[in-house]
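Researcher: Quick sanity check before group meeting.
Model: Go ahead. Protein one:
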Amino acid sequence: MNILANREKAKIKANPQYRSSSITLLRFTESNIALHLDGPIPLKYLVVTKKITEMIASEFYGNRSKAIEYCNQLILKHLNKPSFNEEQKNVLEELGLLCHAFKFYNQEQLNLIIQMIHSKPIDPYLYNTILSKLI
């Protein structure tokens, strides 16, 4: 990635009007990056996935299917069993694991979870914005 960044820097230096292509920008975003000017630094996604993996290993003896089933039922119980379409159910699967691993069950956290369930299928950027508030 440093080679690409250096090439882009040289192009910009040679021509201040130069703008990186969308393909080049996508290559830069293949990894987790963030700019935080103030406020708390959010958990890194690797920390989140590690915690979920550890929870599945310790509570469900590594059985991800059982963990998903249990966590889905639990989160639906906390959300008062609302109905979701198929895309939202897929998001619920991710968030059920997240909620159980981090014990996100207070009303403010559950409100963010509902927003995330509804937003991810139509606006992944909004989903990530809400996720950053949650973690």
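Researcher: Fine. The other one?
Model: Protein two, sequence then structure:
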Amino acid sequence: MRAVHSAAIVTWCLAGHALPAWSQGVLARDSAGVAVRHYARTAAAPTRWRLGRTPILRIGGAGDTKSDFSGVRGVVRLKDGQVIVADGGALELRVFDARGRFLRAFGRRGTGPGELDGMSQVTRVGDTIVVSDFQGRVHAWTPDGTLRQSRGRMPVASLTTPVWMGQLGGRVDVFVGAPEMFQSWTGDEILTVPLVVRDSVGSSRTIASIPAFEVANVNGRQMPVYLGPAARMAINANDVCVAWSKEWLVTCYDANGKARWRTTRNVPLGSLADSDKEAFRENFRQGNRATPPDRREAIVRAFQFARNRPAISRIELSRSGELWIGEWVIAEELQLGQPGFTVPDRATIWSILGRDGAWLADVELPERFRLLEAGSDYVAGVIRDEDDVESVVVYHIVRGGQ
């Protein structure tokens, strides 16, 4: 673990002078020449962005079956205002016009070309929509529903169990190695995994080793630490960004796998509350009701929890290349290592970093809203009402100074 973070350690000194209320961060270069910014605990965002009071588009709840959603996994907004919704319940992608009227659907449940066995990752490269399913297959469509590619699980020479995370431009795929969970205790509290890129002809190379999960020693075996730190990842056509949630640490790589910048913040970590732990236990019970009660409770009693809350929950790369970093909320911690797909039950604060890693702004997103895409002047996602009915919404962003 020390080796993973050695490049991120920045020696900085303020020579007795306090930081201003906000700053560009203490900027340095690590041994590899990567620009590193550190923000002290007293630092604050230089400006606040805000959302319009009401959505500029809302799709859902109209009684039309195509606007009834169940487990939205992704939202893509095109330049002409059309919106593509990846519905995890129906396992199809639905296209709506700029006024929210249904146009077409493509993709379906199955195991053939363009067919899905679940939705694992939903991303976009330009206007191409790329989806991986639970079998590790990857499918890509144009917005008119044309299937551009449909590939089976791809071998990666350096990885025993590759996990597809996204796609860069030029059909360069990004993988991580699946960590070995529930093995004999090795003495390492942090499991690290390789981050690998694979080009269109199948040649792969490791670009980094990243911390993935925290584990605990339980009777000589490593057990996952729930509600603890984990890796988060965001990928677009040009960037791969990786966050380690324990330390508010983010590193972004270019399409060639070279680290471009790294940003850290000194964020106070509160203790994990008993209510947080019980909420996680109850969610597990509800999701595993088919398991015999005695067995289910034995599993629950064996859960190991982190001492402190992580610093962040999720990261998202915007269409304009800015990185959005969301504060930690328990509702997004329902799957180990990957955000759950429920929505936060409260408003959340997101920090936005520029393409050079500098802190640009903070913005508050509304309660019961899950961010799925950010643009230069909008955010899109799913919102749930009091009856847990899902709607897809798009809000206009008002940037500071506008």
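Researcher: One line on it for the slide.
Model: DSSP finds three helices and 31 strands in the chain.
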